[in-house]
Amino acid sequence: MTKSALQIARAAYQPKVPAALKGAVKAVEGAYTQSVADQDEVKKLFPNTYGMPVVTFEKTSSPKAMPAINAGVILSGGQAPGGHNVIAGIFDGLKSLNKDSRLFGFILGPGGLVDHNYMELTADIIDEYRNTGGFDMIGSGRTKLEAKEQFDKGLEILKELDIKALVIIGGDDSNTNACVLAEYYKAIGAGVQVIGCPKTIDGDLKNEQIETSFGFDTACKVYSEVIGNIQRDCNSARKYWHFIKLMGRSASHIALECALQTQPNVCIVSEEVEAKNMSLDDVITQVAEVVAKRAANGDNFGTVLIPEGLVEFIPAMKRLIAELSDFLAHHEDEFKLIKRSEQRNYIISKLTKENSEIYASLPEGVARQLTLDRDPHGNVQVSLIETEKLLAEMVGTRLAEWKKEGKYVGKFAAQVHFFGYEGRCAAPSNYDADYCYSLGYTASCLIASGKTGYMSSVRNTTAPADQWIAGGVPITMMMNMEKRHGEMKPVIQKALVKLDGAPFKTFAAKREGWALTTDYVYPGPIQYFGPTEVCDEPTKTLQLELAK
Ligand code: FBP
């Protein structure tokens, strides 16, 4: 691999870790736990792993000698900056317990376990990837691990390699599957522990014990840098409105965090659109009003941030997507036999009147996206829907109407952008480099203390790393029952933006001012070397959520 100067210098970075992880640790158990909702159903489905206590690791002066252990690791789902440091943390943690321990990486995600595709991760390999972005050390994939046959097939290779613990690094769906796997292996006495690690740039895997998912910090900083650059360009030429869609799947955490970092003229928050029962038309009117007011002040430029999941949150669209999901889950084979050119009419003829009308009114591309391209978890791939174009076009049409009515006096020219993939593999910020390494190291402590069905947790992360708290949370604690592919399933509850939470309230208190004045902030690129207030600052979201 030819390395950049930054990559070479960055390889020497020593991630900061909680003080407790700097020597031998003991596991201290807290209170027994309950799932966040649907306790009876979740308990029934996880008889062996439900209700376990939260665990915290503390320093001990009497370490126990540990036998060597073989462990496996899987990167699952979308890339997120810091994944390699999680693996480095697991590796260093296992080696510190016993230098003969070994780590195996399964190639290209959960599919690697089922297909017996793996490689041993030696010190040389790990050193090549310390503090780098990407998941290319072993690759990632979206195969859903959910069937007993897959679990049994996986167990064959785990037995062959004498692997006693498996770490699954993934988002809410992958950690749900990790929990199902942990339960199954425990139920059959397989002798394999399963530990999860909270990954996703989307920031929607968080709760009382999991402050944030890794990658959110770096991805938001990359997007905010570019939004800031666009805002400076926009404030220089003063002739374009920029419609910027941001990744993040359902939740609007990324859009909200970028708004807090850059102070755009408009930021749509999907969760608010849903709570206010807004239609697409309402959203368009709201944006067009800001454009018109700025134009009245002579400002024919601005920025609009759009969360990629927006269409799923417009209540009428949500009802349509729910009916489509149910319908396609039950008629997938029949649907596949319909000619591509006939599919739209076929769907229109099968839906209820209200949904059929909305579906028929959608541009071809958006309609196709909703019916065809689902990911293996059944999710609509919202990152493929061109919401930014849809909004820019519809706002333009609305302004043209207002112009005829004499309600709008300006000029409107739009540019559209989508920021997603460019942030997912950036070199991790100090926060993500430190957090990920600590999560991995903590996973090795969970393995050493015999835990299974736990997610690695590192808390208090707005304080200096020395004061971070490492531990583990039973995954069942985060679960509830939800409809997936037309059936009720136990899943980790997705954390959406809370409208009564500090990040949204801070944004809501300032947005009117940001809409009309041009009060942009230009955060600049992530800094890896320099003063701590520049290099180590956590996200605004985390700072606001954890402020006492
Ligand atoms: P994860 O939930 O697996 O972390 O994926 C995050 C994400 O980047 C979403 O923000 C986005 O909607 C999706 O992945 C895109 O998926 P793909 O990489 O398959 O195009």
Automatic annotation (TrEMBL):
<dbReference type="InterPro" id="IPR022953">
    <property type="entry name" value="ATP_PFK"/>
</dbReference>
<keyword id="KW-0418">Kinase</keyword>
<feature type="binding site">
    <location>
        <position position="78"/>
    </location>
    <ligand>
        <name>diphosphate</name>
    </ligand>
</feature>
<feature type="binding site" description="in other chain">
    <location>
        <begin position="200"/>
        <end position="202"/>
    </location>
    <ligand>
        <name>substrate</name>
    </ligand>
</feature>
<comment type="function">
    <text>Catalyzes the phosphorylation of D-fructose 6-phosphate, the first committing step of glycolysis. Uses inorganic phosphate (PPi) as phosphoryl donor instead of ATP like common ATP-dependent phosphofructokinases (ATP-PFKs), which renders the reaction reversible, and can thus function both in glycolysis and gluconeogenesis. Consistently, PPi-PFK can replace the enzymes of both the forward (ATP-PFK) and reverse (fructose-bisphosphatase (FBPase)) reactions.</text>
</comment>
<dbReference type="InterPro" id="IPR011183">
    <property type="entry name" value="PfpB_PPi_PFK"/>
</dbReference>
<dbReference type="GO" id="GO:0046872">
    <property type="term" value="F:metal ion binding"/>
</dbReference>
<dbReference type="GO" id="GO:0047334">
    <property type="term" value="F:diphosphate-fructose-6-phosphate 1-phosphotransferase activity"/>
</dbReference>
<feature type="binding site">
    <location>
        <position position="172"/>
    </location>
    <ligand>
        <name>Mg(2+)</name>
    </ligand>
</feature>
<dbReference type="GO" id="GO:0005829">
    <property type="term" value="C:cytosol"/>
</dbReference>
<dbReference type="InterPro" id="IPR000023">
    <property type="entry name" value="Phosphofructokinase_dom"/>
</dbReference>
<feature type="binding site" description="in other chain">
    <location>
        <begin position="247"/>
        <end position="249"/>
    </location>
    <ligand>
        <name>substrate</name>
    </ligand>
</feature>
<feature type="domain" description="Phosphofructokinase">
    <location>
        <begin position="71"/>
        <end position="315"/>
    </location>
</feature>
<feature type="binding site" description="in other chain">
    <location>
        <position position="308"/>
    </location>
    <ligand>
        <name>substrate</name>
    </ligand>
</feature>
<dbReference type="InterPro" id="IPR035966">
    <property type="entry name" value="PKF_sf"/>
</dbReference>
<keyword id="KW-0460">Magnesium</keyword>
<comment type="similarity">
    <text>Belongs to the phosphofructokinase type A (PFKA) family. PPi-dependent PFK group II subfamily. Clade 'Long' sub-subfamily.</text>
</comment>
<feature type="active site" description="Proton acceptor">
    <location>
        <position position="202"/>
    </location>
</feature>
<dbReference type="GO" id="GO:0003872">
    <property type="term" value="F:6-phosphofructokinase activity"/>
</dbReference>
<feature type="binding site">
    <location>
        <begin position="239"/>
        <end position="240"/>
    </location>
    <ligand>
        <name>substrate</name>
    </ligand>
</feature>
<feature type="site" description="Important for catalytic activity and substrate specificity; stabilizes the transition state when the phosphoryl donor is PPi; prevents ATP from binding by mimicking the alpha-phosphate group of ATP">
    <location>
        <position position="173"/>
    </location>
</feature>
<dbReference type="Pfam" id="PF00365">
    <property type="entry name" value="PFK"/>
</dbReference>
<protein>
    <recommendedName>
        <fullName>Pyrophosphate--fructose 6-phosphate 1-phosphotransferase</fullName>
        <ecNumber>2.7.1.90</ecNumber>
    </recommendedName>
</protein>
<dbReference type="GO" id="GO:0006002">
    <property type="term" value="P:fructose 6-phosphate metabolic process"/>
</dbReference>
<keyword id="KW-0808">Transferase</keyword>
<keyword id="KW-0324">Glycolysis</keyword>
<dbReference type="GO" id="GO:0009749">
    <property type="term" value="P:response to glucose"/>
</dbReference>
<keyword id="KW-0963">Cytoplasm</keyword>
<comment type="subunit">
    <text>Homodimer.</text>
</comment>
<comment type="pathway">
    <text>Carbohydrate degradation; glycolysis; D-glyceraldehyde 3-phosphate and glycerone phosphate from D-glucose: step 3/4.</text>
</comment>
<feature type="binding site" description="in other chain">
    <location>
        <begin position="421"/>
        <end position="424"/>
    </location>
    <ligand>
        <name>substrate</name>
    </ligand>
</feature>
<feature type="site" description="Important for catalytic activity; stabilizes the transition state when the phosphoryl donor is PPi">
    <location>
        <position position="199"/>
    </location>
</feature>
<keyword id="KW-0479">Metal-binding</keyword>
<dbReference type="GO" id="GO:0005524">
    <property type="term" value="F:ATP binding"/>
</dbReference>
